[in-house]
Amino acid sequence: MVLTLGKLVILSKWIFTRQATTAAIDITNRCNLRCLQCYWWRQDHSGELEDQKIIMFMKVLRARGLRAVILYGGEPTLRPEICIEASRIFDATLAFTNGTNGFPLLDNGQWILSLDGPEDVNDSIRGKGVYRKAVENLIKAPRQPIVHITISKLNKDSLDDFVRRMLELPIKGIGFSFFTPDLGADDSDLFIPVKERDRILGRLLLLRERYGEKVGFTPAMARKLSSFGDFTKWNQLSACPVSTRVRCFKSDGQPKACTYGDDADCSRCGCAAVAAYNGAFRPFNFQTLKLILGLMVPELRVPEDQSVSGMISYIKGFMNRNKPKAGREIRSYSYIGSSTL
């Protein structure tokens, strides 16, 4: 991925506006695994858009102002050509995968590999042989992926070993979420109560101190997830960035409330994306913003002035140096329209 004006536009909208910037799309209703903690298998799913229809659907979203996309499933690599096309349509693309089908090269995107612990723990959750296959494909990947783990009662005691093993591999970094249950669901075998996860938050910060910034979890993110921090200030949909910044869609193109589905229990949310966004901007925290920028623009140089005004000046300067010629859009689908979602 390269630094583009489109990515700076996304960042500037995050800072200066409350406009939606991102589409989160389930590009398939199929998956080749059945992971124990996955929300996907707890939901009913309709059909998926055929290739040409989903490509046109993505172009419509892009024309309406959504410059970034997050690809989910099911398993997105069951439709590799759609993943590749999405990376051509949008200015920034993140794609989640279980890694068993490899990592097709995305023109403008970043793969995020979901694993759930060291080999024995991961395979007890995801299926025998999954860890080894995913790691084999990771090593052969044309671009280093980010590894992501969803922390639950099933794997919470193996985090140290997992991080150490992952950092021995050619990866860009590691991200962390906590299992989020559905409304009314018990899930006591998976969900870590908010007060109990405080200890794990501290453990993640110690791992970051030990291994550095490849451990993608900051003190600001910990404050957003902790029982004695800011968690109760945002753990409802009306206060969640997903409700303003991201438009979520099912595999048939119909909208849904959250990437986790319509029934996700916000009061018990463990989403790293929400913690990262709130940690970066509420209030401004450059350490966490740098983590987000690493997802979008690995080539972005860090300005010496890391204050809010310093970052704003940096963005304005870049955009002034890279203004498109009059009458020319960075990428246009004018035949569809340009209204804002």
Q: Could you walk me through the main structural features you see in this protein, from its secondary elements to its overall organization?
A:
The chain has 341 residues and is α/β, with parallel strands linked by helices. The chain has a single domain, classed as Alpha-Beta Barrel (TIM Barrel), CATH 3.20.20. Helices cover 38% and strands 12% of the residues. The chain has 13 helices and 8 strands. Strands 6-5-4-3-2-1-7-8 form an 8-stranded mixed sheet. Helix 2 links the parallel strand 1 and strand 2. Helix 8 packs across helix 11. The C terminus is likely disordered.
Residue runs with pLDDT of under 50 for 5 or more positions:
324-341
Q: Give the neighbour order of strands across the main sheet.
A: 6-5-4-3-2-1-7-8
Annotation field: number of helices = 13
Structural class: alpha/beta
What's the end-to-end separation, in Å?
A: 26 Å
Instruction: State mean pLDDT (0 to 100 scale).
Output: 87
Work out the number of β strands: 8
Topology, please?
Layout: H1 5-16, E1 22-26, H2 51-63, E2 68-72, H3 80-89, E3 92-97, E4 109-114, H4 119-126, H5 130-140, E5 146-151, H6 159-166, E6 173-178, H7 194-211, H8 219-225, H9 231-234, H10 242-245, E7 246-249, E8 255-256, H11 272-281, H12 286-296, H13 308-321
Parallel strand pairs: 1-2, 1-7, 2-3, 3-4, 4-5, 5-6
Antiparallel strand pairs: 7-8
Helix pairs in contact: 1-13, 2-3, 8-11, 11-12
